[in-house]
Every structure is written in C-alpha cells, then in structure tokens.
Design goal:
Helices cover about 45% and strands about 15% of the residues. The longest helix is centred in the N-terminal third of the chain and has 15 residues. The chain has 2 domains: about 140 residues, HAD superfamily/HAD-like (Rossmann fold, 3-Layer(aba) Sandwich), CATH 3.40.50; about 60 residues, Putative phosphatase, domain 2 (DNA polymerase, domain 1). α3 crosses α4, α5 runs parallel beside α10 and α7 packs across α8. It has 10 helices and 7 strands. It is an alpha/beta fold and about 220 residues long.
C-alpha cells in the first residue's frame, strides 16, 4: 500500500463504539415526538448518515418533523448520550504511533464538531489531531463528502497523499467524491460485504493491522 501523509478518520464505528449513546438518544427523540420506538436492529441504520437524512429517509418525516426530532435527539445526547461511548481496543495506541511517525491525523465526522471535540478530549486523544471537521447544515456541510471536501480545503491537502478511514459505505462514498483512497475497518458498524463494494485499499480487522499497513 502506498504511503499517505494525511489520514482522515471517521468517529462513530471507527474510533469509538457510540452505539449505546446513539440508541438512547434516538429512543428519547422518538418518545418525545410521540412515535413508535424502532427496534435496535432498525436503529443501527441511523449510525453513519447525517441525522436529518436518517429521520427523513427512514421515518418519512417532513422538514419540520425532522428538525424537531433532531432537537429532541441532541437534547438528550448533549447531556447524557455523549458520555455513553468507549474507544475501540488499540485506538489510543494507534493514534499515538501514527502521530509519532509524522502522519497528520484529521477527524471527519457527521457529528457536530463541538460534540466530536468533547468526546476526543474526554477520551484523551484530542491532541493527536491536526484538524477536526463535523457536520454543519447551516453552512452547507451535511454529507460526509462535504465534510471531507471542507477538510481538504482548510488544510490544503493533496488527495493523492490522503486516505479516509471509516466503517460504513457513507465514508466510502464520501472518500470517492473527494478523490480519496478508502480504508474500510472491520471492527465497526459495517462489514466486509458492505465495504468491499467500494474497492477499499485495505480492510483491516484490528488497529494494529491498520498501523502496520500505514507505516510500511
């Protein structure tokens, strides 16, 4: 695999297992909105795409209903759900090794940047990142493609020297739209069947495998 100077990481399902907090926040949002709470299997679909897309496409909500559901979600997530996460095994060591080797690390997430920064700081890994970019619909940054293009522009990265690391098809599509290679990790919310459709340059099963490949 070729050498990359810039490594862009997804957050949910790539660096952290955030399912408990996301599911609790979604259940709260559906209950507050007076809607039937989906099963856990159905809730998994919400991990990856932007919230407004999920509420609209998966639940058939109109714009007003989507905005209200998002507000309910963030009401719970900002105080309780945000704490319900854990770093995947090996993530802290992986970030430390890559940073020590001179790689520039960035975070590209569909979460609002303020939540992402709080999580990384709480986990003790914020200082490994050169830059962070999250969703910001008010400024036209909603999809993973838009988040990645924003990062590339802000930090004047050359796509050929940059790779996106994620666990879902949304990360792969975003990478393709931004002209980036894609690495699909197998410890998150996606699987090899989903990720292999997007021609990843690597599908590592562990952080150690990913580090070894990136530092060859």
């Amino acid at each position: 695999m070729k050498k990359y100077e810039n490594i862009l990481f997804d957050l949910d399902g790539t660096l952290i297992d955030s399912s408990k907090g996301i599911f609790a926040s979604l259940r709260y949002a559906f209950e507050k909105a007076g809607r039937k709470i989906p099963s856990e299997k159905e809730l998994y679909r919400f991990i990856g795409p932007p919230l407004n897309v999920s509420f609209s496409e998966f639940c058939g909500m109109n714009e007003e209903q989507t905005e209200q559901a998002e507000a309910f979600y963030r009401e719970y997530y900002s105080t309780d759900g945000i704490r319900m996460y854990s770093l995947y095994a090996g993530v802290a060591d992986m970030l430390r090794e890559l940073s020590a080797a001179g790689k520039r690390l960035f975070l590209a997430t569909s979460k609002p940047e303020i939540f992402a920064r709080e999580i990384l700081a709480d986990a003790g890994v914020l200082d490994y990142f050169t830059g962070i970019c999250g969703s910001d619909p008010a400024n036209g940054r909603n999809s993973k493609s838009e988040v990645l293009l924003c990062l590339l522009s802000l930090y004047t990265m050359i796509p050929a020297d940059t790779v996106m690391v994620g666990d879902r098809k949304y990360d792969a599509v975003g990478a393709s739209d931004a002209g980036l290679d894609f690495i699909g990790v197998l410890w998150g919310f996606g699987d090899s069947a989903e990720l292999s459709e997007y021609a990843p340059v690597l599908m590592p099963a562990s952080c150690n495998e990913l580090v070894r490949a990136l530092l060859l």
